[in-house]
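Structure tokens please, single chain.
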Amino acid sequence: MTSLGTGADWMSDQWTIASALRLANGCVKDARTLVASGSRNAAYLSQQAIEQIIRALATSEAIHIERHDAHQLDKIVRRFPDDHAEKAALKSLVWLEAYATTFRYTLPSGQIPRAPDKAKLQEAIVGISSLILRVAEHFKVDLDDESKPAQTATPMRRASQQ
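Here you go.
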């Protein structure tokens, strides 16, 4: 991760934030379509969406995510400051991390892991969609225009802390 607010590194952070949020938005849109059709792959794409949101937020916090921790969403979120505006929302969605790895493979028994409850997954997709919009608004990211970086990389804090 780079230091914030200085030259090209700062602009790189703005691009990373914007690109991660756009990827998250695409994943959650696809997850919404897949869950409606009954596809178990909706869980994987939901996990990918929350992972990208966490990546965007970690970038603004100058938190470096080691490769071996990339799918350890709960571990990454624990590193966020307690006054982070979205820490509670993120904590409520990190259960999806299981669908990044083990869910994509058969169990040791050779069986396929059980898909999450459809209603719980739909609720998570709604939460992720709302989270994307809040985070994009904070960073001033146009989710549809890939030619522009985020307009700010300032970390998110609860209103009383700003």
